[in-house]
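In this section we walk through a basic example: taking a raw amino acid sequence and producing a predicted 3D structure, encoded as discrete structure tokens. The instruction is simple. Fold the sequence below.
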Amino acid sequence: MEKFAFIIHPLDVRDVARKFPFTRYLPERLVESAFRLVPPLKVSRITGVKTPYGEAEGWFVACPLTARQMLELPEDFVLERIIQAGRVAEKLGAGIVGLGAFTSVVGDAGITVAKNLNIAVTTGNSYTVATAIEGTKEAARLMGHDLRRAHIVVLGATGSIGKVCALMLAREATKMTLVARDKSRLEQVAAKILYETGLAVTITSDVKKALRTAQVVIAVTSAVDTLIGPEDLLPGAVVCDVSRPRNVSRQVAEQRDDVLVIEGGVVEVPGEVNFNFNFGFPPGTAYACMSETMILALEKRYENFSLGRDITIKQVEEISALAKKHGFKLAGLRSFERAIDPREIERIRARAESRLDAPGEQQLVGVAP
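The resulting token sequence is shown next.
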């Protein structure tokens, strides 16, 4: 039986209430301050991961810091807490530990954590990229977009996930805009894409401007607050929101019935997996980053895998092949925690097409005709 662990943390104080219900009655800042003092702890045991090639079990280990704290507290303090969580995984017997959510973003994206542990570490970003690309391509196809002609926008293009997503999509695209805050790093990514694919991309730090003409968007920033509102998107736009917390406001779902927002990286896990903890997904499914950790354990690949900010296409293709071997697969398309079927997508597409043909309606939803 192979063994793994996965480090999770509350995105905000509402997630703390999943494990400690009494906290929902307390002020948010009080809860954050109190849990800053709580050491990492085992949350649950994960059982039932089984494929024709092996079995695995694991544990969720919590690092009790919210996303906001991960970004605002001193980096050394946060890294030490993540390392402590990794040591809990070691004591439990895990051979590899995955870094979830913002634990994979802090500092050097897992490299320092790996240096301070005696077990393998992965961020899971390679399989996250693979499923995000697969889901985006399928959603774009269903909405009638040809990636060779669509305007593709990547938000968070200088991050480890965003950069390799842009590189992979650039092999098909003819029009792409990269968005991030750091201009010099954007220029480096743009130069790499030009060298490797021949595509000259546009770069900007202006999210709203980039989205104004985008048909296909991959959102993968580490922003705590939402970046995409209902007024930002063209009718018919497809958005793959890989980020947690979300980059897309829930108001988009409430006010825009002519755009398709999908969740990136929701995966069906083979076997009769039981996580013994509610992290908001349907039974039998997990984030792609969690799944990468399981896949590496099943393969007995107890080695550091997706670390740092330079994930390669080769890594993405390798983990994709291993996922297919073991029976991990994309869990259909989901939008704001619910499954979305092809018939609903057909209705979204029909509404979008009618509004694109009616300039007054475009103006009504805040999009320039």
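Looking at the output, two observations stand out. The first strand starts at residue 2 and ends at 8. The chain is about 40% helix and 20% strand. In the next section we compare this with other chains.
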